[in-house]
Fold:
Amino acid sequence: MDYLRTLGSAAVSSLVQKSGLTLPFSLGTKVTSFENPSWTLYDATKRDDGSQVSVFEFDANTPAKKNYLPLAKNALRKLRTVRHPDVLRFMDAVETDTTIHIMTERVRPLASAISTWSAKGAQEREEWLIWGLHRISVALTFVNDSCASTHGNVRVGSIFISATGEWKLGGFDALSSPKDDAAVLYTLGSVIPDAMSYASPEVKNKGWSVLKEHEPAVADSYALGLLIHCIFNPSAPLPATAQPPHPPPTASSRGAIPIALFPSFKKLLNPNPKARLTPKHLLELGMSQTAGEGSGVFANNRLVKICSGLDNFNLGNESEKVVFLRTLKESASSFPQEFAAQRVLPSLTSALEFGGASAATILPLVMQFGKGVPPEDYSSAILVHLVKLYASPDRGTRMALLDHLPEYADKLDKKTVVDKIWPNLQTGFSDTVALIREATVRSIILLSDKLNERILNNDLLRYLAKMQADPEPSIRTNTCILIGRLGPSLGYNTKRKVLVPAFARALKDPFVHARVAGLMALMATIECFDAEDLASKVIPNMSSTMVDTEKLVRDQAFKTMELFIKRLEEHATTMPETAAPETEALPLGLPPSSPGSNALVNSAAGAASALAGWAISSLGKKLAAADLQSTMDTNVGAEIDRPTSAPASGDALRPLASTFASAASSSHLGAKPGAKGMQLGAHKVPASVSAAALAAEWADEAVADAAQINYWGSDDLMDVNADQDDWSAFETAPVINSSSLSSTPNGAKDLWGDRGFTSPDPADDFLKPASKVSKPLHSPRPVYLNTPRSPSPLIANRNSRQPRSATPSESDAGEHTAPQKAVSTAGMTKEEKAAEMARRKEERRQRIAALKEAKKSVATPAP
Structure:
């Protein structure tokens, strides 16, 4: 048997070997601080449940203990029958003819506890001693009155400290009742070790049998007075009043005995047994506030108040409970550690679980007193009660649990969290009270390492997605922070699917701190993104925050962007310079200083110069030797092979300025005789009318109008709301064949898109009389409506009206109309510009009317 290896008594070994008995306990170490000639104290373990107990061993086989055997048997018999909260609790016993083993609750001797408390403050130590004296007075009152017996052995060695820190009365060796025929006190009182040192004066005079003539409390009252002297002055000898002629105690002999207790101390040591103060009267005097000298010594003690409040807690009303809990909180720091952990804490957890005062008031006290609980007992003493409270629908209880979660979260195991806490905790996400929702969100990070994969990557994220749409901005902000802290612990696929959308949603939140939290969360989870995700997902989603209306967001955005760019730069250094095959030549032979090379620019001006250098150097590149020997394609309409990545050709992509540039240069091209196709001099133009003059006029108008209109804005091309303007010209103008505008007489396409100042349209030649010489009029100029809207340059070029050549009718009309000098609008006031535009509008209307009349005359045959 295992207990034989730790058994310190040869008597027990012999007992087990001879009788074959099985002890209900396993003996541990011997308690050396317990000094008693009759008994030996052991720390032991109960076999049934492994709980800690104490075992008192008596072995009559030792010659020095044979005389104590009747007293030992009396102690076992009385301890079995006398039950009281302040009496040592009996649990089991094993008795033979010569040995006795009594198993009780785990205790330690009072003498060792007094030595420990001697190092503490005088006030704190005094309160503890008075509280203990109160408990012993209660126990003696019960023995003397309820049991009608005399203890007969009241001393420091007969008192023990339980696991709860409370004083327990033991030492029942001489406990006897005058009515009991087998009473040992009256016949064997002198056998008790040091009996005469603690005996009352009447016993010293007439012996122990004289006690039958007095009240049962007479001897115990005197011994209680000596006990008071011993616990307050542990190193001093017994007072002089203990020896004949028993003089009354003097003030100089008081020592550390409290002044309020000293009058009662003197009455307890009165030599006259009939005038002596009994334990019952001491208790009544101490609990009374108006009983005279020495009153209130117990009633004013904090520990006494706490014990009384705990015993009657469930019977008190709500106001009494609130007052008691406030007192408990104020004096909690001065409680003995074992008293707080084993006496106060169980009472509070019981009230917390089965009703009573508000959980929000009790739970903080539970956590405060739980700090003194040993780690191995924390789960059974505290956690088991807290876990049950999560099922409570009371919001105050839930809020108190979540507020104090940091104090016990690390002591929870994964199974408890998944099976018992999470099913109840998740209801807080959908609670109608915002405070509960926010506390639930903030609590998740403390329990995240104890959640399984299914909850973490599925159930929890669904709730957090809803929390990001919560009407409370603080909840949205804390949700974003929580996702950022959970990011590294999520699964790989979950990270890629959830993090960027979640943070992008936070970056668009109207609450400024939610946007800042989104940026910080992106920085905190940078390790969760690879380089491709940073460049294609993260940076595009967060770039808008760099122009946020709040400076706080902008500053954080630039710091975040700097971190991401640095990460991408580090990644770029590990990448190859190009992914193209080595045999593939650079397009157009890019020069080393071009933007396509390794040279970088650091400013907008430098970038513009580099772009210009790229175009010029590329076009000025020398032809290769093979190209020098080839011939150019004479087909003007042939198109160049274009890669799919090149922009589409056409008028839509041609800048507006190209029209003016080509118009200005066309005057030189038209001077060559015999030009064909796209030659602008196909129709002879009188020298009085110069194409350069028309180009200059249009350029002036364009410059003047450009000063008023922003063509790179986002407005419409024309003012569709200007209903008062004359739109008849656009409604009655003839439809022009697009093919005639985009083709040359040879059928070649117009590669430049200028379409000239004259048109080689065959229809015009057909309508022109042979005897007439075409004379150009002012060609229709582009119309720029005065509107604040700024169209795109591409749309402006596509929708603007292009100059065309004069028709024969226009040429005839031009013979009688002198060309007008172009008037520039530059430098005009707003009214002058409006008048000029009205004049041009009327002139255009007249030309359109003349064109219609000319066509009618051509269509009508001459008689």
Summary: Residues 1-18, 588-599, 610-695, 702-819 have pLDDT under 50 and may be disordered. The beta strands are 25-30, 40-46, 52-59, 90-95, 99-105, 107-109, 159-162, 167-169.
